[in-house]
Amino acid sequence: MNDISAQLIEQVKQAASDGTALQVIGGGSKDFMGRTPTGTPISIKAHSGIISYEPVELVLTARAGTPLSQIKEALSEHQQMMAFEPPLFDGNATLGGTLACHLSGAARAWSGSIRDHVLGIRLINGKGEHLRFGGQVMKNVAGYDVSRMQAGAMGTLGIISEVSLKIMPKPAASLTVVQDMNAAQAIDTMNRLSGQAVPLTGACWLNGQLYLRLAGAKSAVETTAREWQGSALDHGDGFWEQLGDQRLDFFASDAPLWRFSVKSSSEHVMPNENWLIDWGGAQRWLKGDFNKDELEAIAENMGGQVSLYRGGNRDSEVFHTQPEALKLIHQRLKHAFDPNTIFNPGRLYSWM
């Protein structure tokens, strides 16, 4: 356990006084995300440790630099887990960085994202004030939900110092069924099964195969698996871990990687072998060199957005173009939390 919040606050105050930009860094596992970072590095990796963990209350609070692997190990001792299944990225992913980048695993469509599991945070704003938002209980609503606002903010609103999460029990049983079908058939199947009362917690299509994960009570898992066609996948848990950590062969390419967040039932309009479909159809990965404006138009027709997740030109805009009204809201929030624009300037958008 290591609390360096006082040191971080002093660094922020000095940067605000000098007008120096700060590049907020956690474990460095997601440095490839967002636009090219600028500013003097300020590391929160040493600000780590689990502050409190109440297995009976299903609540854990930890400092932002705490590795997710450490949290996962502590939860496993009590047969509990982070239900949003965040990627560990070889053990380098931290709690604060995962919230800032809003990353969740295969269960996202059924269990929610990290944003849905955050109960409260502590945040160092651009004035060097150490603020607390939310709490450590399941129901805590008062004013703006600043805690959830950090999800996907990429560190542009301040330095997350602590995070409180709700946690969940591990399922008693898990089994993965594999079926052969094309992308259009998979999208239809995933959406149809998602509407049924079955313990479905993962649905992914890759290379002509649909992967369906059942997790929950052993009787429900086994009964459902017998009713579905397909073959059981050996070491199914390993497949979903590799998918979440982006260690499958699909992700090994150096080609630009695009992430679509769309309506789960939207038609697969770009036939291409370089696709991976996850979250029951709501998250779709595409690799290759494409025009961003053209992909944005396709994503909007599919009811969502697209971003250049990895690779490509990181000096240009990488996230979906925002309408002027949302742009104004983003800028006002940025000014409220970071009036001197010292935190990760331009990392999210060039205009922030």
SSE arrangement:
Blueprint (H helix, E strand, L loop, with lengths): L4 H14 L3 E4 L14 E4 L6 E5 L4 E5 L4 H9 L3 E2 L13 H7 L6 H4 L2 H4 E7 L5 E5 L11 H4 L9 E8 L1 E2 L3 E8 L2 H12 L5 E7 L2 E8 L1 H10 L3 E2 L3 H9 L12 E5 L13 E4 L4 E5 L4 H10 L3 E6 L13 H14 L15
Parallel strand pairs: 1-2
Antiparallel strand pairs: 3-4, 4-8, 5-9, 6-7, 6-8, 10-12, 10-13, 11-12, 11-15, 14-16, 14-17, 15-16
Characterization of this structure:
The protein is of the alpha+beta class. It folds into two domains: 5-169, 2-Layer Sandwich (Uridine Diphospho-n-acetylenolpyruvylglucosamine Reductase, domain 3); 173-310. It has eleven helices and 17 strands. The chain has helices spanning 5-18, 68-76, 95-101, 108-111, 114-117, 146-149, 183-194, 218-227, 236-244, 292-301, 324-337; strands at 22-25, 40-43, 50-54, 59-63, 80-81, 118-124, 130-134, 159-166, 168-169, 173-180, 200-206, 209-216, 231-232, 257-261, 275-278, 283-287, 305-310. A hairpin with a 5-residue loop joins strand 6 and strand 7 (130-134). The radius of gyration is 21 Å and the shape is globular. The two termini are 34 Å apart.
